[in-house]
Amino acid sequence: MMQPCNNTSVGILVVRYGALLLIERRRPPYGWTLPAGHVDPGEDYETAARRELREEAGLTATAMTLVHSGRYANRCQRPGGDWHRWAVYKATTEGNPARSLTETKAMTWADRPALGGLAQVTRQHLAAEADRGTWRQQPGLGPVFLPILGSLGWVGAQW
Q1: pTM above the 0.90 mark?
Q2: What is the CATH number of the domain that holds 96?
Q3: Cα separations (Å) of 113 from 22, 23, 87, 116?
Q4: Residue 32 · residue 24 · CB < 8 Å
Q5: Into how many domains does the chain fold?
Q6: Residue 159 lies in a domain
Q7: Does 31 fall in a domain?
Q8: Peptide bond into 4 cis (omega under 30)
Q9: Cα–Cα distances in Å, from 103 out to 24, 37, 58, 128?
Q10: Residue 77 CB partners (closer than 8 Å, separation 6+)
C-alpha cells in the first residue's frame, strides 16, 4: 500500500547560461519540471532538495538558496496528495547532469522562450484544448510550475 502524502515538496533551480535544467517525468504527474520531489520523513526541505537533485539529475549541490515557498494545489499519486507546501531552492552545482533512467524520460536546458512555449502547452491542456494522450506524448510544464516559475520571473504571469 502506498504511504499517505505528507504534502511537502521541493524543487531545485539549476541555471546555466541563462537556461533552467528541466526533466521530463516518467511517472505521473507527467510534464517537464524542475528536479523535484517529496520531503521524506526525517528530512528538512534543504536535505530533500539535495537528495532529489542527486537522484533525478545526478548533480551535487555546493550551495542552496531558498528562492520561493508557498502552498499550491498539486495532485500526486499518494493518498491525500491534493496540495503541497513547496520550497524551491536555487542550487550551485558541480558535475555534469545525468538523468535518472527510472524517474525521467528526458532532460534539457530551457531558456525563457522555450519555457514560454512549454507554458503555453500547459495552458492549452488546462483549458481542455489538448487530450491526455497528447499530454503524455508532448507535455508542457507540470501545472504547479506555472505559478512557481511565474513568481520567479521565468514564465509570463498569464498562468
Answers
A1: yes
A2: 3.90.79.10
A3: 14, 17, 25, 5
A4: yes
A5: 1
A6: no
A7: yes
A8: no
A9: 9, 11, 12, 27
A10: 2, 27, 28, 29
Q: What is the domain range of residue 129?
A: 8-151
Alpha-carbon span 2 to 62, nearest angstrom = 33
Give the three cell numbers for residue 11.
524543487
| pLDDT at 58 > cutoff 70 | yes
Q: What is the pLDDT of residues 66-122, one digit of tens each?
A: 999 999 988 888 888 899 999 999 999 999 999 999 999 999 999 999 999 999 999
Between CA 55 and CA 47, with CA 104 as vertex, the angle to 5 degrees is: 25
73: cell is 494545489
- SS3 category, 18: coil
Tens digits of per-residue pLDDT, 20-54?
A: 999 999 988 889 999 999 999 999 999 999 999 99
Helix residue ranges, H only, 21-144: 45-57, 112-126, 132-137
- Is position 57 within any domain? yes
Indicate whether 15 belongs to any domain. yes
